[in-house]
Amino acid sequence: MSKQVIVWGMGEMGSVFARGFLKLGYNVVPVVRSSDPKIVAGEYPDPELVLVAVGEAALQLVLETVPKAWHGKIALLQNELLPSDWQQHNFPNPTVISVWFEKKKGMDSKPLISSPAWGPKAQLLADALDSLGIPAHSVETLDEMIYELVRKNVYIVTTNIAGMKTGGTVSELWAIHEAFARDVASDVMDIQEVLVGSELPRERLISGMLEAFDGDPDHGCMGRSAPARLARAISQADAAGLEVSTLRTIS
User: Fold this and answer.
1) 30: which of 76, 136, 200, 244 is 20 to 30 A away, CA to CA?
2) Burial class (CB in 10 A: 0-12, 13-18, 19+), 224
3) Is the per-residue pLDDT at 1 higher than 60?
4) How do the domains of the chain map onto residue ranges?
């Protein structure tokens, strides 16, 4: 019998990974809203991997309900993900991927840059994406993965929030509003530093963000989640006592 991979959340992202796992010869077992995870875990107590592919808003509730049998098998891919998201649930050794491809209903996957993964099953995630022609790679250390997670956060939060004022594409944001974009990114990095608990390589993060801009210059800045991202950023800044004057002006 082929080894099982559990995919918890079968939306656009979960479905992409599920297809990749199938191409690698794995038996994919879905967990959807109507599923009872405890029953599924009873049937499949020792899968190769449990990929949690639910949206950011559902992540913490899902992580609170992960069956004990799966605690050593978890992999995470959500936006705005940081180590505190899994550390508070005491998962011993998760696999984490920062997803750098876009997937919307009715369209093929559109990579921006290679998606980095870290953890015991990082290569499995990279291989699943590679089987679909989506670039991915593994990184060796948690510190490097934290950089990659923060880079994605800086990209998505900066472009979403800045786009609430400028509209347009990421290339237009940098070409026309670079100073404003840098101010927004600086506020975002202030918050990220508090959340990760250490100083960040700010110029490297800006360069990393620009690499993603070059990967899809016509990517729109303001997604539908932008207002929620701004509200969350302001809440995080309030909790940390941060000024973040540019974000507050936009708000």
Assistant:
1) 136
2) exposed
3) no
4) 4-140, 143-250
